[in-house]
Amino acid sequence: MPQPALVEVINFGDELLVGIRENAHLTYLGEQLARFGLPIHRARIITDNVSEIKKAFADAWAHSDVVITTGGLGPTADDMTRESIAEALGAELEFDAEIEDAIKSRFKVLGRSMAAHHLKQCYRFKEGHVLHNERGTAPGLAYRADGKLLIMLPGPTHEMNPMFKKQALPLLQEAGLLSTEEAYLQIRTCGTGESTIEEMMQPLIAKHPALSVAYCVHYGIVDVRLSGREGALSMNCLKAIGQEAREILGDDFVCFGHCSLAKVIFHELRALDRTLAVAESCTGGSVANEFTNLPGASKVFQGGVVCYTNEVKMDILGVPECLLDQHGAVSAECAVAMASGVAEKLSADYGLSVTGFAGPGGGDETNPVGTIHLGYHSPVGVWCKTVRYTGGRLDVKARAVHAALDWMRRKLKKYKMEEMLCCGGSD
Amino acid sequence: MPQPALVEVINFGDELLVGIRENAHLTYLGEQLARFGLPIHRARIITDNVSEIKKAFADAWAHSDVVITTGGLGPTADDMTRESIAEALGAELEFDAEIEDAIKSRFKVLGRSMAAHHLKQCYRFKEGHVLHNERGTAPGLAYRADGKLLIMLPGPTHEMNPMFKKQALPLLQEAGLLSTEEAYLQIRTCGTGESTIEEMMQPLIAKHPALSVAYCVHYGIVDVRLSGREGALSMNCLKAIGQEAREILGDDFVCFGHCSLAKVIFHELRALDRTLAVAESCTGGSVANEFTNLPGASKVFQGGVVCYTNEVKMDILGVPECLLDQHGAVSAECAVAMASGVAEKLSADYGLSVTGFAGPGGGDETNPVGTIHLGYHSPVGVWCKTVRYTGGRLDVKARAVHAALDWMRRKLKKYKMEEMLCCGGSD
């Protein structure tokens, strides 16, 4: 087997060095390339300065097989990447009338004419490709020399991402540098800690010595990425191992791939032809937001109520005043009343509710900051559950959202048979 | 004035190269260092491999004055940073019984005993400092040689961030590398494009040749960071220039610093002693979420309704059926009815509403995908406004949230006098 190609990414842009912006470019490129079996070997982030650009590029070009750059292709005087790299390569740039036409017609659609400074964006490597930019003016550029490949992408994410996926990936695949088959299999789990998931995976790792496993944790979700050491396992092998893992993981298994918890619930309810409404206090709209991030959400999701005061809980959701007096708004009893109330008032089959103290204020002896009560109303039963998290306000909110969704996912799974019977008998 | 120190950051960790995790380390370090006048000059992300670590470190050490590393200090066999860098430096590591004690007592608190593999974490540079880790086992390390400074930080964010702020920053300040005064002033603007804001800033830039201006754009917000070239302007000078900028920017000016739009509105309503409720269709809870992210939100924010179906709009918000029949749910008329409805039903003084097509589905000739109608109900009047955005569903949602909040912010500003009169006369 030949040595895999060495890929280096260079992100140009001061904004990445002074904390203005997270480097989403590298995350995206890293994920896309790793998915097809060519992990990034090295990355640098470089200030917008001609001598720094030249030095970094020359070093990267000398030590890698593929160099991918992002940023610095704009029309302003700061955007010196194109010229600096051409100089470092000793490659000639030439004016391309087709690029000019593309930029002009882009402006025409917007009812404006092209400003003169955009002319610098019309230059390409004399011996190279142009990657069309469907979302902006800066074209991407590709160049091949010394058995190496250079790909230059624009900085804005919404321009870079589709350009990379549609044009750069095929270029890398044509060059035989990248597999057309995905290289790892992701298993998403939720509700159990990373170390426990790692322990659960041990027997599989012992059984398959060529198996490589990576973990990624985010707010209660633990993603498990299965791959073969140096590509030793085909996707079919990985899928077979994935099935074994699914068995071992039991109810902690959420899905293969990257589905959100909300999407898993959406598909379950869609299959049952049922609808959902949510009532939120401390998560403040985040649970609703998870559902409304899904295209076509309205087929299942009726809506939600963010009830930040007792009045809203009473007036809109019908939570009884005496219940609030007796138990308070942060209580299992209130969570139940909210779940049933929102289902009834919004005419949904299912209601999911969250109430708690996200902090930093609030909380008492029985319900310290970080205490979250969940309520669930379904055609087959009504339940409540209490969880507790540490961390800042936003961390607690994020954990609470995943806790509520994961709990509903598990309930739907557990009572699937009853739900289906119930569905069948309902109309 | 002496040349500013060159700072290079090296982030170790495969997870940063394969898209598992965003490089929050670099964002945090960049923001902290830039704030005190020492922007990061260069950054690299390196795979966990001894020869790569040595090569990258040696190069960084040769070309920089300060090298900061993150990651690779853990107890496992993969964590080779400490040993590899010591070798590259030709510096001796020695066992430190105090570190061992600190790790042992950490485990004692957790009711566990220290495993043998943690012994490798007890080594420090013979001639160097130890940075105590208050949240984990891996201590940080500092080392000085050749007039340069090396700081090694652990990977987990919640361990690294406080260690950097409390121990590494003072070390840099003691060494005279870092100012103890903040180095830039941020002005947040919203509602006007980056290029227009840049044009508005031109006269100021012409007037103050020592002024350096950086821009950062996120979903309709444009942050303007003012600083002096090579620290030429004191914070007092920057504040005076900031006031001039504020005049020039007019209503586009949101705040100095990092306040969210929701927080600005929160403070305005708090000052007026008024309350708010929101009704959302396509933004699906995101506007409510912006408010509930603020500690103490309940003093102003009554709650919100995510009305994803016509039934919810009618039943919960009282939007008339005939209005929906005549104009549809995505219309200025519906936005107005939603805003007034949510204010009335949730007993709030102000109502803010959003309805539109976030895509990819939906949309028609009058209201193509990306069309957003906003509604605003206030004690001094009721208004609607229509905006249109391109981009994916989540981009359109994010833009719509900022558009709604910015519009309300402007209205509050414009009618401040009337609002105050209205407030005064209300009880």
Could you explain the architecture of this structure?
- Two copies of one chain form a homodimer.
- The first copy, chain A, is built from 14 helices and 17 strands.
- With 427 residues, the first copy, chain A, is of the alpha/beta class.
- Chain A folds into three domains: 168 residues, Molybdenum Cofactor Biosythetic Enzyme, Chain A (3-Layer(aba) Sandwich); 73 residues, Alpha-Beta Plaits (2-Layer Sandwich), CATH 3.30.70; 163 residues, Alpha-Beta Complex (Maf protein).
- In chain A, the strands form four sheets. A six-stranded mixed sheet of chain A has the order 2-1-3-8-7-6, sandwiched between helices.
- In chain A, helix 6 packs across helix 7 and helix 8 packs parallel to helix 13.
- The longest helix of chain A is centred in the last third of the chain and has 22 residues.
- The mean pLDDT of chain A is 92.
- The interface between A and B is large, with 77 and 80 residues.
Mean pLDDT across all residues of chain A, rounded? Answer: 92
Q: Sketch the major β-sheet of chain A.
A: 6 strands, mixed
The percent range for helix content of chain A is 40-55%
Compute the number of helices of chain A: 14
Uncertain segments of chain A: none
**Architecture of the largest domain in chain A, CATH level 2?**
3-Layer(aba) Sandwich
